[in-house]
């Protein structure tokens, strides 16, 4: 079950050419190229729009950095014990 040899690839290429024809394959490749070009242009337009966006304003409020007294912590209650299992033998 090794890889394909040169003869295998030639047979596959000939079958593809017979099924689709030479013109149709070149049309498909041309459409693929146009799609990639359009995608790249769209990505460039998006980045340009981000660069043209005005910077966001920052609120000029003072930040309170004075030390606060520690908060009282609530007492931690242990979880309830698991229910007794009636299937275990008791001594």
TrEMBL record:
Localisation: Cell membrane
Transmembrane parts of this sequence: 6-25
A Pfam family recorded for this sequence: TatA_B_E
Membrane-topology annotation of the record: Single-pass membrane protein
GO annotations of cellular component type: TAT protein transport complex
GO molecular function: protein transmembrane transporter activity
Subunit structure comment from the entry: The Tat system comprises two distinct complexes: a TatABC complex, containing multiple copies of TatA, TatB and TatC subunits, and a separate TatA complex, containing only TatA subunits. Substrates initially bind to the TatABC complex, which probably triggers association of the separate TatA complex to form the active translocon.
Function: Part of the twin-arginine translocation (Tat) system that transports large folded proteins containing a characteristic twin-arginine motif in their signal peptide across membranes. TatA could form the protein-conducting channel of the Tat system.
Protein name: Sec-independent protein translocase protein TatA
Organism name: Sphingomonas lutea
């Amino acid at each position: 079950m090794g890889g394909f040899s040169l003869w295998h690839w030639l047979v596959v290429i000939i079958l593809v050419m017979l099924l689709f024809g030479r013109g149709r394959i070149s049309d498909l490749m041309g459409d693929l190229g146009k799609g990639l070009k359009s995608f790249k242009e769209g990505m460039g337009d998006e980045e340009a729009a981000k660069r043209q966006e005005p910077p966001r304003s920052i609120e000029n409020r003072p930040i309170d950095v004075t030390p606060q007294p520690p908060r009282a912590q609530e007492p931690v209650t242990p979880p309830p014990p698991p229910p007794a299992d009636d299937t275990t033998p008791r001594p």
